[in-house]
């Protein structure tokens, strides 16, 4: 048997499968790992009976029903392949008949071909798997020549795999829930992983599109494709351009499993799937790749309807796949950490110096000690460089100033003043689950009620904040049913709610914005007037824009905005109304278990020509992970009439 395994290694390396299917394969010495296809020449003749023998053996072993083959074929619930690209299949009916495709692949293994066109060159992962499982001796196979594959594979040098999580980015609909990709690292290059390659799965968009982009992404109208690129490009894109922190979750995949996964990526050239922002997305497809080498874990099966990137990271932890976590802060995170370390006054001066004329920088620094000058110059350089990389200033403006900042800093003989950004106490995988259900009871206008609510995703300002960015709210499909006065009514339906509170810093004054689209019960009578006794349902669209502020510790955040409300209902006089007015609020994280949110709105309604004061207060207490108590109070006042409601609920977060 050992002789047989070494013969197999002469043609195709053992780059690993699941343990149950690797019993016949010899391990690889990482110091002498061969390229995926060996180059030599040999003439041979193989009889059709021998091919039929292996096809029959594959039927006996039921290889077409094995999880690895079905994962390689992207089998769907109908037993067919989801792949639409015809050249992904050897058999003309391979997409519809996975058994026929397996038979055709076995037969193709024995056909001599020109360089780069054999089945072993085009589909190295599936070819290797069939050879290993069927124990086909190398002497019975033609030698294949795959210079294209060999060259590609030799650049990657797969050894370890790491899942990368980029935190949410509200500036792009496809990235509001975060993003995952897979980094492939060579052996013995842990300190040089920036030059490793990363496997990315994303929607392919040909041109810049505005509102249609979100709609097409939600409805699967973009093709999603795998791509391979240097990891440093993604670090620059996420960490510098979009100011997104990165979390690296190193996986305990073996070298052979990592190699097999990479060979499959070669097979996926020109293959695409419909890309859906909330389901068949980056996170779902990365799990599908991991299912190739650990099919017994059934990772992707947990996310058939929605696949939120951070939820997929959590399941990797639960399944014991994560061996190490590394935090890579974005450039803006590093800059804000310097401002916290050195103080707002020096940070503000750094911004002024960086934006001044190069000839005036020295005089602006003169009043400060050398220590403070070094701090100012370091912060100023990072501030201006961040503005340049995010296209906030042109290169003609930034480059001479960056050069002068470096010259001045080089003249100060002091070590760097910045400290390394400390790793947050909680990483995103330790945050609450995206879905939740809440059971509540309360009193509205002196009448008791019970209520049940559910949210499909993702995070509310009042939710436990650990693992999420302060001031970020994204709610998708949240609804509540209320039983009161012997009636069961829909209390609220939030289709989509997005709020991004970006605090003002010494370096910039970003806009805090948001919008809410949904339906809710309003205190209105049948004539559309404010009522203390009845409620009617209204469809609504609310938008906000303004500014927010946070303390250095980022445990409180306050905001002030101008808010517009558009409501439509048959109960309203004209069927619709508009309300515009100020909104202020504060989010506070008191400790690891308690946080609160207070908000005051004051819209001026177009139909009644009156101001409507709306106060809401909420406090959340985390009992234990994924379980919380929520107490809320709401008050409305209009034209000397008011509305009061208090509610206590138990919320459970789940996958």
TrEMBL record:
Residues 1-25 form the signal peptide. Residues 426-653 form the DUF7840 domain. Residues 150-318 form the Lnb N-terminal periplasmic domain. It comes from the Bacteria. Keywords: Signal. Residues 62-132 form the DUF7843 domain. InterPro entries: DUF7840, DUF7842, DUF7843, Lnb_N. Residues 326-420 form the DUF7842 domain. This is DUF4105 domain-containing protein. The lineage of its organism: Bacteria, Pseudomonadati, Pseudomonadota, Gammaproteobacteria, Moraxellales.
């Amino acid at each position: 048997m050992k002789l047989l395994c070494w013969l197999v290694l002469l043609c195709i390396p053992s780059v690993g499968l699941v343990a149950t299917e690797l019993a016949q394969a010899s391990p690889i010495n990482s110091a002498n790992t061969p390229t995926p296809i060996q180059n030599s020449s040999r003439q041979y003749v193989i009889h059709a009976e021998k091919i039929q023998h292996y096809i029959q053996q594959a039927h006996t072993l039921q290889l077409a029903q094995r999880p690895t083959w079905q994962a390689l074929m992207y089998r769907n619930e109908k037993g067919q392949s989801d792949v639409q690209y015809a050249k992904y299949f050897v058999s003309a009916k391979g997409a519809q008949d996975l058994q026929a495709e397996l038979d055709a692949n076995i037969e193709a293994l024995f056909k001599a071909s020109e360089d780069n066109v054999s089945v072993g060159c085009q589909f190295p992962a599936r070819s290797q798997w069939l050879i290993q499982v069927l124990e086909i001796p190398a002497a019975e196979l033609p030698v294949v020549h795959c210079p294209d594959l060999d060259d590609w594979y030799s650049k990657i040098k797969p050894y370890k795999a790491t899942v990368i999580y980029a935190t949410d980015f509200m500036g792009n609909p496809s990235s509001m829930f975060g993003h995952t990709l897979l980094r492939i690292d060579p052996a013995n290059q842990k300190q040089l992983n920036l030059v490793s390659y990363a496997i990315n799965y994303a929607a392919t968009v040909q041109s810049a599109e505005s509102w249609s982009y979100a709609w097409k992404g939600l409805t699967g109208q973009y093709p999603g494709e795998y791509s391979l690129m240097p990891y440093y490009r993604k670090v620059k894109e996420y960490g510098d351009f979009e100011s997104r922190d990165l979390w690296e979750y190193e996986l305990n995949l073996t070298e052979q499993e990592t190699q097999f996964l990479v060979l499959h990526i070669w097979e996926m050239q020109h293959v695409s799937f419909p890309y859906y922002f909330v389901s068949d997305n980056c996170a779902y497809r990365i799990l599908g790749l991991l299912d190739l080498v650990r099919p017994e874990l059934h990772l992707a099966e947990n996310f058939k309807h929605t696949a939120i990137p951070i939820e997929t990271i959590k399941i990797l932890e639960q399944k014991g796949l994560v061996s190490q976590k590394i935090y890579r802060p974005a450039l803006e995170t590093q800059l804000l950490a310097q401002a916290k370390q050195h103080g707002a006054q020096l940070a503000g001066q750094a911004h002024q110096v960086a934006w001044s004329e190069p000839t005036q920088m020295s005089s602006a620094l003169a009043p400060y000690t050398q220590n403070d000058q070094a701090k100012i110059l370091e912060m100023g350089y990072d501030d201006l460089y961040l503005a340049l990389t995010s296209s906030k200033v042109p290169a003609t403006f930034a480059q001479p100033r960056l050069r002068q900042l470096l010259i001045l800093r080089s003249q100060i003989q002091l070590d760097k003043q910045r400290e390394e950004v400390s790793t947050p106490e909680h990483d995103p995988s330790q945050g609450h689950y995206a879905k939740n259900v809440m059971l509540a009871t309360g009193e509205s206008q002196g009448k008791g009620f019970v209520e049940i609510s559910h949210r499909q995703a993702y995070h509310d300002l009042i939710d436990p904040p650990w693992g999420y960015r302060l001031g970020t709210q994204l709610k998708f499909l949240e609804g509540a049913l209320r039983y009161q006065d012997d009636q069961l009514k829909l209390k609220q339906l939030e289709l989509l709610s997005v709020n991004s509170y970006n605090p003002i810093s010494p370096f910039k004054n970003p806009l805090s914005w948001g919008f809410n689209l949904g339906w809710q019960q309003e205190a209105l009578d049948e004539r559309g007037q404010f009522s203390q006794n009845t409620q009617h349902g209204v469809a609504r669209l609310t938008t906000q824009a303004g500014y927010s502020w946070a303390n250095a510790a980022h445990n409180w955040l306050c905001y002030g905005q101008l808010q517009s409300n558009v409501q439509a209902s048959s109960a309203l006089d004209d069927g619709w109304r508009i309300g515009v007015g100020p909104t202020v609020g504060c989010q506070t994280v008191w400790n690891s278990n308690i946080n609160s949110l207070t908000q005051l709105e004051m819209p001026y309604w177009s139909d009644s020509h009156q101001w409507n004061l709306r106060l809401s207060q909420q406090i959340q207490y985390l009992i234990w992970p994924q379980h919380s108590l929520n107490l809320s109070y709401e008050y409305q006042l209009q034209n000397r009439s008011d509305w009061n409601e208090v509610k206590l609920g138990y919320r459970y977060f789940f996958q």
